[in-house]
Amino acid sequence: MNVVSQLIGGNWSEGASGRTVTVFDPSSGEPVSTVPVSADTDVTEAVRAARNAAPGWAATAPAARATALRAAADSVERATGELAALMHAEMGKPEAEAADSIAAGIGTLRQYAELGPVHRGRTLAGDEPAIDLMAYVPRGVVAVITPWNDPVAVACGLLGAALVTGNTVVHKPSERTPATGHRLVALLAPHFPDAVLSLVSGDAPVGAALAAADVDVVAHVGSTATGRAIAAACARTGAKPLLENGGSDPLIIDAGVDPGWAAAQAATGAFANSGQICVAVERIYAHRDIAGAFLAALTAEAATWATRIGPLVDTRLRDAVHGQVAAAVTAGAQPLAGATVPDGPGAFYPPTVLADCTDDMPIMRDETFGPVAPVLTVDSFDEALKRAADSPYGLAATVLTPSMSHAQRAWRTLPTGTVKINAVFGGAPGGAAHPRRASGHGFGYGPELLDEFTATKAVHIEAPPNGW
Ligand code: NAD
């Protein structure tokens, strides 16, 4: 059993609330981690320690901050196997895939170690000898509140960018992956002065206490409902919210594409990580010309994924996923694969394909966060674009098309932060994400995340009256 503790001002201790949370292995249902929950007083103490440490860390040379981050990345890399085993035990991701996502996190830490020292402002020449400087300064204390579905990579991005730009951080990892979060902080924190990186542990009330505390930025990756609660807390305190939240990403399959290739893309988008990816394919619009062949190929893909898919994170999520699937079937959707809760231990759910879906079904409108590919057949590319755009979310969208003009129209018109043409996943190193509407606000990664964690100070300098 993994036992987690909190790190406040350089000291490891148990949370003072007297409450604990137990995490169950999603493959076996056996208990795997126990988390002593931080009390409100622990959160206040962690924020105070971070506030006290902030001036010293802000005054540390960016190159020295980057050196610390680089060494921290090396420590995480050496512990990849251990972290992958913890991720597998706590959230079910197969260990090899967990190691890949940890490698992505390490890459992000190193990227921010390179970018931090070269992050720059600009100067403006006024009337000689005046000059204006637009200088970046750290914002102060950053709360980093993260989810369970990609716990190391997501935390590495926010922690790396916040620390290298001279902020101190109080981090609360998800209560679903507390031992993974605890181990990550134990690897990172020794490379920084005491209280530059603190850890509080526990569930939603701990996150809420941190979001309402005396911090300057609350960076949250997680559900839209939580993001809205955090935005409300920030409105009361004046902290800046940085929100990367849920999505209902559409996949458009245009006429003229190879149905087998489109099915492989759709399956990867909908079933990878058992559908528990913020930018998973959540709804599919298939052109009538190829819909039949595409659905047959997607059903065959689902059979191959069934043998290698991991569990969902817990039975609560499985109940929610199956609830949406069952409601869709009751409303007329045709289950072509999966759609049943398997017997046996754990929180497994089969890759599921639904045909004849309609826009009003929750499986098409809401985020599902499970291995489900709901398909709606359309008569034209224009109809697909219109239906894809009709969503409260604005995270990402994918279009598979042989037509350059359709591709151009898609990226210009779809109201999402990211548009992918002819690949459900991918993106150049250093790329950014800028979600909209219910999917969040602010840059989630990329060089622009350094801007989010810094404030621009405009400085106007003139010479004294006697000249210079
Ligand atoms: P969640 O919002 O329930 O939990 C995330 C974190 O927020 C946890 O640490 C949790 O304890 C904390 N929290 C919960 N309630 C809180 C409150 N009222 N105030 C402050 N903190 C609170 O999300 P989750 O279920 O862990 O993660 C799944 C969600 O995350 C999905 O919606 C997914 O789309 C989203 N996600 C988005 C991105 C992105 O980049 N847009 C990336 C990964 C996951």
Question: What does it look like?
Answer:
This protein has 15 helices and 23 strands. With 468 residues, it is an alpha/beta fold. The protein has two domains: 2-245 and 439-458, Aldehyde Dehydrogenase, Chain A, domain 1 (3-Layer(aba) Sandwich); 249-421, Aldehyde Dehydrogenase, Chain A, domain 2 (3-Layer(aba) Sandwich). A seven-stranded mixed sheet has the order 15-16-17-14-13-19-20, with helices on both faces. Strand 9 (168-172), helix 6 and strand 10 form a beta-alpha-beta unit. Helix 3 (80-91) crosses helix 4, helix 4 runs parallel beside helix 5 (151-164) and helix 9 (259-271) packs across helix 10 (288-306). The longest helix has 24 residues, at 95-118. The protein is globular. The model has no long low-confidence stretch (mean pLDDT 96). The site of nicotinamide-adenine-dinucleotide (NAD) has 32 residues, from helix 7 and helix 8. Residues 145-150, 154, 172, 174-175, 203-204, 207-208, 211, 221-223, 226, 229-230, 244-247, 278, 367, 369, 395, 435, 440, 444 line the site of nicotinamide-adenine-dinucleotide (NAD).
